[in-house]
Design brief:
Length: 122
């Protein structure tokens, strides 16, 4: 079992920045790919970013150049640095861990955090 807890969400003005953190406990953190997904009201959950155990990163086109995923294996923590935030980034952000073949697909992840709210005002 892996337990995930997100933090760092909040209210920010458009153009601002936030850094989300996801602390993992339980099984060996380094074995898993880590992903960030988000879900806005009335919309389906969508992929934001992922990082494999090797360090390879993937970002959705909608956040490329603005968001950056990273991981600190010594701290069992994955981060999502979000810059130049837009109102359309408003959503609940979820951290996920697993061994997905395709890191952009949520069914490939076995463990999920409860989520953290990010609200971007115009």
């Amino acid at each position: 079992q892996v337990q995930l807890v997100e933090s760092g969400g909040g209210l920010v003005q458009a153009g601002g920045s936030l850094r989300l953190s996801c602390a993992a406990s339980g099984r060996t953190f380094t074995n898993y790919a880590m992903g960030w997904f988000r879900q806005a009201p009335g919309k389906e959950r969508e992929f934001v970013a992922a990082i494999r155990w090797s360090g390879n990163t993937f970002h959705a086109d909608s956040v490329k150049g603005r968001f950056t995923i990273s991981r600190d294996n010594a701290k069992n923590t994955v981060y999502l640095q979000m810059n130049s935030l837009k109102p359309e980034d408003t959503a609940v952000y979820y951290c996920a861990a697993g061994t997905p073949v395709i890191v952009t697909m949520s069914p490939g992840y076995d463990y999920w955090g409860p989520g953290t709210q990010v609200t971007v005002s115009p």
